[in-house]
Amino acid sequence: xxxxxxxxxxxxxxxxxxxxxxxxxxxxxxxxxxxxxxxxxxxxxxxxxxxxxxxxxxxxxxxxxxxxxxxxxxxxxxxxxxxxxxxxxxxxxxxxxxxxxxxxxxxxxxxxxxxxxxxxxxxxxxxxxxxxxxxxxxxxxxxxxxxxxxxxxxxxxxxxxxxxxxxxxxxxxxxxxxxxxxxxxxxxxxxxxxxxxxxxxxxxxxxxxxxxxxxxxxxxxxxxxxxxxxxxxxxxxxxxxxxxxxxxxxxxxxxxxxxxxxxxxxxxxxxxxxxxxxxxxxxxxxxxxxxxxxxxxxxxxxxxxxxxxxxxxxxxxxxxxxxxxxxxxxxxxxxxxxxxxxxxxxxxxxxxxxxxxxxxxxxxxxxxxxxxxxxxxxxxxxxxxxxxxxxxxxxxxxxxxxxxxxxxxxxxxxxx
Length: 416
Ligand SMILES: Nc1ncnc2c1ncn2[C@@H]1O[C@H](COP(=O)(O)OP(=O)(O)O)[C@@H](O)[C@H]1O
Ligand SMILES: [Mg+2]
What we know:
single chain, binds magnesium ion, globular, 10 strands
């Protein structure tokens, strides 16, 4: 060695091979994430859902706050927790129990329509089919995961049974629901486990997990989903004529159908790419939401996305896949109405696509991005954490978007 080096580079640690260096970074990051999660969700490191004020509960159930108070004073139906100052708080499970209680009362009076206004479960006997909604666009950051999570939660809060499926190997939706893929999942724990082509395949019912959010179950995601992109070409090339199970586009559909009786709506959060997984999701879908951030680059890439999707779906259709959507809607996301260019592009989309652009845009809001920092949605965080104006504007926009989608679902069921 001799003289001390004057070249700073030589003072550094000997270079590690890239794989080891990256692995070390991954471990450090994962450990820190775990520590952060322990701090935020200590001591159980499980997420829990807040309780809802009686005002929120009344609005969700569709009765007046006064009527809820009456019920609670009379000791009828599920009872709220009474906090400081006599304020009444309901868990989402209690709100759900309240719906069932009120529905039974309505039924007892022979008012079936009213009962169905409380408990909104689909009725297969009336031909109300499982709604499978893909939230898609191959542009990352277009708001797919944020929209999926808020939609799933809105539907659950409003009395539906929801299965949320994370199809993105990056697993952001799973993280929002409290799962950290590399810690909480081992192998074969994603949808891939139920659609794979080899003998490791297992029933989706074994993969579905309960979440802390009443009426939402989750099929988590992680990197193994990516396997489907490699396994599919292999399966296609070794497929025996007539063997439909080897056709990629039937697999997600079949897996979802196997658990479909337990749910009203399935929300599929698609990955930001147009591979076999996204295509299979689209083929399994009864409806599609394409998220679009109104910026020129995003809109240009969406045009590519639409061309490619259409070409690929055409191949699927020629191969015998059926593709009839109850609805396909464009959802304008992270919208800033006072931004001239954005407003122009939103207007341009509306003039092109007309009613297929949801009337309500999802406004850009710091309330949503801030909630995201602690892996929460705006429905979870509660009003006290923000300035009222900020929170109310964001919730109002979210509710408007989701109510529109709920209405589309109900009209696909022939209800409106
Ligand atoms: N309406 C919104 N207002 C503010 N930030 C948003 C909004 N929607 C999404 N975001 C933020 O934008 C980022 C990307 O959104 P995300 O839903 O993860 O997109 P995608 O799933 O399409 O990649 C996230 O950090 C999210 O918190
Ligand atoms: Mg995403």
